[in-house]
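FIELD: query
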Amino acid sequence: MMVLVSVAPAILAIRSLSRSFGVPVRDHLNWGAWPPVTSLFPGKMFLVGLTGGIASGKSSVIQVFQQLGCAVIDVDVIARHVVQPGYPAHRRIVEAFGTEVLLENGDIDRKVLGDLIFNQPDRRHLLNSITHPEICKEMMKETFKFFLRGYRYVILDIPLLFETKKLLKYMKHTVVVYCDRDTQLARLMQRNSLNRDDAEARIKAQLPLKDKARMARHVLDNSGEWSVTKRQVVLLHAELERSLEYLPLRLGVLTGLAGIASLLYLLTHYLLPSP
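FIELD: result
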């Protein structure tokens, strides 16, 4: 009876996870059969893609979300992490592009690699095919950690969210930190000590903020007083936090983990023969 009571939560949780993830129970031991990030936690926990433009105030907005206790993942940090020496993406990049892309310490020379794929769609596609799956794996790991800790949603800070479109399919909500062109120009000139021509050139090198705003589900207008922007962030956070549909699945996962731990304890201490 003790075994049945201990194992039951694990069985129930696995069946619940199977229904939620859309993966047959027998496939749960096959990690390759698990669904991509886009189908994880459907209707339960979700991802929010946040982007902006140069001098739009995205970093300041991210800080407010963090002060509110939100989970934030910086995709640029992940992208740099997965190509470090010793990681699969690093090895495959060297195999594909040669040792000329390496610095003396073994790190990837991002400038050299960038030059190699510049105006070379085939090479760019090859690089993306190497790095994108690894980035998604790390995203899923970090997201699952936040899920177990009870977060309603996770913000992904993605500078080129709408330019590359690679991660858009994973986002339930998209947010753009916007400011008007004159404000953006003035802030950039002051922040980076640039003349007008240089500042305008940097802004023109990016997708216009007005275009990003049209594509986003939510727009945080940072053109005016900071207090107004901060209030927009607080209101958006409240809107995203409002639903609590994810709690039953989370409780099921935690119960399942407890049941599996109980089963392992019984197996190792009572059911398996001593060596």
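FIELD: remark
Residues 121-148 form the longest helix (28 residues).
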